[in-house]
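Form P-L/3: holo structure prediction, ligand adenosine-5'-triphosphate.
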Amino acid sequence: MLILSSPSGAGKTTIARRLLAEDSEIRPSVSVTTRAPRPGEVEGKDYYFVSRDTFDRMAEDNAFYEWATVFGNSYGTPKAQIREGLKEGRDFLFDIDWQGTQQLSQKAGTDVVRIFVLPPSIQELHRRLSGRGTDSAEVIADRMARAQAEITHWDSYDYVVVNDDIDACFAQVREILAAERMKRTRQTGLIPFVRELLKPQG
Ligand SMILES: Nc1ncnc2c1ncn2[C@@H]1O[C@H](COP(=O)(O)OP(=O)(O)OP(=O)(O)O)[C@@H](O)[C@H]1O
Ligand SMILES: Nc1nc2c(ncn2[C@@H]2O[C@H](COP(=O)(O)O)[C@@H](O)[C@H]2O)c(=O)[nH]1
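OUTPUT (holo model):
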């Protein structure tokens, strides 16, 4: 379970989309949200957009691995889509905030790899949120007002990358993923091979 978090606008969605396009081994965890769709966002690909009533019912029915209120809307990771994949040992990518990261870490322990994406500066963060052209001035002001509070959670993450140049940052994320996949504890498929190597020779 690879988690990307950042203050809004630092670039985690950009990194996530590229990773999903280039790495067929990892699947997205598509969240459920009460937020209205942004122009260009696709139902079932970017989010499942639901009413407040539907979200509350799902939360009551324990349908989320984690959920949180972010910028006045609710966001949750539905269990159904990833339960089977996780059993099969598949990799999943989560674009979630620090609250969801804490909840997933408590539930999944060492199966979670957490990356925090920092912007190169607060000024550049504002430029990116404005340049994206998807949010009102009010929404941007709200997200900027919360950015520094979110950055204080950077020390709960396993890795921290600065998204200045997107290519360099993306390369770092790929390196992290490659190294994590090579961890001995994740390479259970190698056990028969190692047993074979260890058989007495001659
Ligand atoms: N390294 C970069 N240099 C310049 N612009 C970038 C860079 N990375 C991302 N951007 C741009 O910044 C804007 C915000 O990026 P993105 O939507 O990926 O952020 P985010 O962290 O997912 O935000 P949110 O949490 O609000 O969804 C987009 O317009 C994106 O194209
Ligand atoms: N805890 C969770 N946080 C989530 C989830 N899906 C998205 N998010 C985070 O919300 C903010 C705002 O997202 P935006 O798409 O409205 O810009 C951002 O930090 C996301 O990472 C979730 O399922 N759980």
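COMMENT: The longest helix spans residues 166-181.
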